[in-house]
Write a structure and sequence with these properties.
Length: 178
C-alpha cells in the first residue's frame, strides 16, 4: 500500500476528478521522491497511483471502487522517481507554472497537455503539483470564454503550432483553413 500521506492525497485527487470533469489527471511529486496521482479512464472510471518507499520505488496504478478503495493493480512500473519526470523538472526550472508539450495520455491515448507548479513550504520546494487536460477539453473550454464570442481563442506552442482552439476550424491570414 501507499504511505499514509500519499494514500490520503490519492483519495482526495479521486474526489477532485469526480467533481471536475475537465481535468484528466491530477498528481503531485514530492521532493523526497514520493508520488501520488488519480486519473480518469474511458467510461468515467478512475484509478489512483503512487510511487515511493511503500512501493519499492515502482509506480503502481490501481483501479478503485466507488468508495475509492483499491480493487486491482493495473500497472506496475519499476524505478519511478517523480523528480526525474519532465513535468517536475520543467516546473523547477521555470520556478513557477510550466506547460508540457502535447503528448498522448498513456491510459486513453488522447492528446493532452500537463501544467505543473512547484509547491513550497517555508520557501523550499516541497513538491510539484500537476494537472493534465485533454486538448479536446481545452478547446471546449476556450469556446466558452467571453473573448471567443467575437473572434477565436487559441493556444499555440513555442513553435507556433496550434494546440487548442475555440473553433473547430480556423482561417489563416490568407483566408484559408489552417
Amino acid at each position: 500500500g501507499a504511505s499514509g500521506r500519499t494514500d490520503a492525497i490519492r483519495k482526495s485527487f479521486r474526489l477532485q476528478l469526480l467533481a471536475r470533469s475537465e481535468v484528466d489527471i491530477v498528481s503531485v511529486g514530492f521532493a523526497d521522491g514520493e508520488y501520488a496521482e488519480a486519473q480518469r479512464l474511458p467510461g468515467g472510471a478512475v484509478r489512483t497511483g503512487g510511487a515511493g518507499k511503500a512501493t519499492g520505488g515502482a509506480l503502481v496504478l490501481e483501479r478503485v471502487d466507488e468508495r475509492g478503495e483499491p480493487v486491482s493493480v493495473e500497472l506496475r512500473r519499476p524505478g519511478y522517481d517523480p523528480r526525474e519526470r519532465p513535468w517536475y523538472r520543467a516546473a523547477i526550472e521555470a520556478d513557477g507554472l510550466a506547460w508540457s508539450r502535447p503528448y498522448s495520455i498513456f491510459s486513453t491515448n488522447e492528446p493532452a497537455v500537463a501544467v505543473s507548479l512547484p509547491v513550497r513550504r517555508d520557501g523550499e520546494v516541497f513538491g510539484v503539483a500537476v494537472a493534465t487536460v485533454e486538448l479536446g477539453t481545452l478547446s471546449a473550454y476556450l469556446a466558452t470564454v467571453e473573448e471567443a464570442r467575437n473572434g477565436v481563442a487559441f493556444v499555440e506552442d513555442e513553435e507556433g503550432r496550434l494546440i487548442a482552439s475555440s473553433r473547430s476550424t480556423i482561417l489563416d491570414e490568407t483566408g484559408g483553413r489552417a
